[in-house]
Amino acid sequence: MALPVPDSYTVGLGASTPTHSGDHDNIRNAVDIRVQTKDGGLEDVSAVGNVGSTETLSLTAGNIITVNNDASCTYTMPSGLTSGKGISFTLVVTNKGAFTATFTGVKWASAIAPTLTSGDTKVDIFTFLTIDGGTTWYGTCVQDVR
Q1: Domain residue spans of the chain
Q2: Which own/partner pairs from 114-117 qualify as long-range (CB within 8 Å, at least 24 positions apart)?
Q3: Is 107 within 8 Å of 126 (Cβ atoms)?
Q4: First-to-last C-alpha distance (Å) of the chain
Q5: How many angstroms separate the CA atoms of 1 and 7, rounded?
Q6: Is the model's pLDDT at 32 over the cut of 50?
Q7: 47-72: per-residue pLDDT in tens?
Q8: How many CA atoms lie within 13 A of 9 on its CB side?
Q9: Residue 27, burial from CB neighbour count under 10 angstroms (0-12, 13-18, 19+)
């Protein structure tokens, strides 16, 4: 069942904002919403450099983290986040050989963790999301980015 669409709308944001009446094709011209973001939406990048066999990921320096895998590494996900809050971050991994990566506590599509692209200077980009303050992490990966 389709919902009825009125012939005109009245749009206003707050008591002091002027309203606009018009048909739904022109309503987008009446709405001017700006979302203020830190530094225009730019995110800080944390360049970790070479990692060893273990690395605890931290979001204190930025939501984009770059690492060089010069050994097989077990990554521990960020902790100490606000309970009940969501956050995401991106991890850019440059593999320096035929090394592996394991991520603790991450849920992957079909419960299958990706395997790092093997070879010198191969790049894989991981995105992680939590919606419960870091209790559960969901991961995705774009591999062999050139």
Answers
A1: 1-33, 39-145
A2: 114/141, 114/143, 116/69, 116/143, 117/143, 117/144
A3: no
A4: 48
A5: 19
A6: no
A7: 999 999 999 999 999 999 999 999 99
A8: 13
A9: middle
Q: Stretch 2-10: mean pLDDT, rounded?
A: 50
Cα separations (Å) of 75 from 12, 49, 112? 48, 14, 16
Residue 97 has pLDDT above 60, yes or no: yes
Q: Which residues pair with 135 in a beta bridge?
A: none
Q: Is 141 exposed, middle or buried (0-12, 13-18, 19+ CB in 10 A)?
A: buried
How far apart CA 108 and CA 139 sit, in angstroms, is 5
The architecture of the domain spanning 39-145 is Sandwich (2.60)
| Torsion angle of the four alpha carbons 100, 103, 106, 108, in this order, in degrees rounded to the nearest 10 | -10
